[in-house]
Amino acid sequence: GGLISGIATAIKGKKPDARVIGVQAEGASSAAPSLQQGERVVLDSVDTIADGIATRTIGEKTFQVIRERVDEVVTVSDADIAVAVMLLLERSKTLVEGAGAVSLAALLADEFDYGADETIVPTLCGGNIDINTLTTVLIRGMIETGRYLRIRTVLPDQPGALDALVSIISEQEANIYAIQHDRTSRDVSMDAAEVEIDLETRGHDHVDRLLDALESAGYEIEVLT
Questions:
Q1: Phi/psi of residue 177, each to 5°?
Q2: Which of 69, 76, 62, 58 is nearest to 112 (CA)?
Q3: Fold that domain 146-223 belongs to in CATH
Q4: Phi and psi (nearest 5°) for 155?
Q5: Contact residues for 174 (Cβ-Cβ < 8 A; gap 6+)
Q6: Per-residue model confidence as pLDDT tens digits over 167-196
Q7: How far apart are the first and last CA of the chain?
């Protein structure tokens, strides 16, 4: 709660009628229930990609400041955070860690109301994110925006079966990242093969069209992402 306490103190000192809205990750949200109950709430556990704010409770001193100077606290999902991190990197060429992107995530997810005459200033801070976590976050962001799709289906184990499937994917203008073709899976009969395909798509509408085309051609598709 240190960052928002300092920001709220500065803003309210200059412009008392300005609204200050706090944002926490759903998997580490102790501020909102603390404000509702009038005392600090300690969570049993935390689970979020925003590790910079993954605390079980807020500080004793900062809690008092938040009660006095923060107007509202909202929460965002890890999926919302992933989308915000991805968009910042893609459009602004700015690398922001999950904890630093929660304010933009709340804005994009419409987690709070604001008027047309209000100026919204999301705070972006911190780039402390390791490459493995960043990879996971970016893929999650692509999934949430319909730009990455993983599917599974079963094909007859005969020449041309995979080519027929890939041809439909090509006709729908989806790009293939990877294919795993397994003829030894115990989950299918011995005259069939299990296929998993990772695809680059262009949004949720494109995903829907692709799945409709595959199902119309007789394929039973399981979406894995």
A1: -85, -50
A2: 76
A3: Alpha-Beta Plaits (3.30.70)
A4: -115, 155
A5: 149, 199, 200, 201, 206, 210
A6: 999 999 999 999 999 988 888 899 999 999
A7: 34
